[in-house]
């Protein structure tokens, strides 16, 4: 009789097993969702840190770029003293940008997001290099102009 009952109940669904499976699936889903939310918060934190650095550097460089674009050199020696600190600011920022471009933080981002960040930082890097070039160009132009003015005065 026991053997017959065992075979008969073996094919019957077990409410305990179904309940256990449903609960474990629910907890598994909850834990996966919770882990995803934790990872998302970590990612958001990293992303916002990188974004805030980019905005900070971009604001500095826009101020430098705008100042240099509008700056008119009158006396080359005095104006060179005024423009040199801007080159120093640029020289401080460039290694930070290079470090961010090569950092593990950005490398750990998903591909589309990483590409957006890298493009933004490449553009920022380009802006910085162009601002530094503009300062050097203004100083060189002023030296060239001052030498030609002196030569013109000597000829007169």
Count of alpha and pi helical runs = 5
Give the strand content: under 5%
**Any idea what the shape is?**
rod-shaped
Write the H/E string, N to C. HHHHH
Helicity, as a percent range:
over 70%
Q: Which sheet architecture does the biggest sheet show?
A: none
Over the alpha carbons, how many angstroms does the gyration radius reach? 33 Å
In whole angstroms, how far apart are the ends?
130 Å
Number of strands: 0
Secondary-structure-based class equals mainly alpha
What would the average pLDDT be, to the nearest integer? 77
Contiguous runs where pLDDT drops below 50 for at least 5 residues: none
Please specify the SSE layout and strand pairing:
Blueprint: H1 2-10, H2 15-70, H3 76-101, H4 104-107, H5 111-155
Helix pairs in contact: 2-3, 2-5, 3-5
What report would you give on this structure?
The structure is a single chain. With 156 residues, the chain is mainly alpha-helical. It is 90% helix and 0% strand. It is built from five helices and no strands. It has helices spanning 2-10, 15-70, 76-101, 104-107, 111-155. Helix 3 (76-101) runs antiparallel to helix 5 (111-155). The chain is rod-shaped. The termini are far apart.
């Amino acid at each position: 009789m026991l053997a017959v009952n065992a075979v008969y109940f073996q094919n019957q669904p077990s409410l305990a097993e179904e309940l256990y499976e449903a609960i474990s699936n629910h907890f598994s889903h909850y834990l996966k969702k919770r882990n995803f939310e934790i990872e998302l918060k970590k990612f958001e934190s990293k992303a916002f840190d990188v974004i805030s650095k980019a905005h900070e550097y971009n604001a500095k460089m826009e101020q430098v770029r705008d100042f240099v674009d509008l700056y008119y050199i009158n006396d080359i020696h005095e104006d060179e003293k005024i423009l040199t600190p801007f080159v120093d600011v640029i020289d401080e920022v460039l290694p930070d940008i290079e470090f961010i471009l090569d950092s593990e933080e950005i490398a750990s981002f998903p591909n589309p997001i990483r590409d957006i960040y890298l493009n933004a930082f490449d553009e920022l890097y380009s802006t910085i290099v162009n601002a530094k070039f503009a300062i050097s160009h203004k100083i060189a132009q002023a030296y060239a102009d001052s030498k030609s003015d002196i030569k013109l005065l000597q000829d007169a």
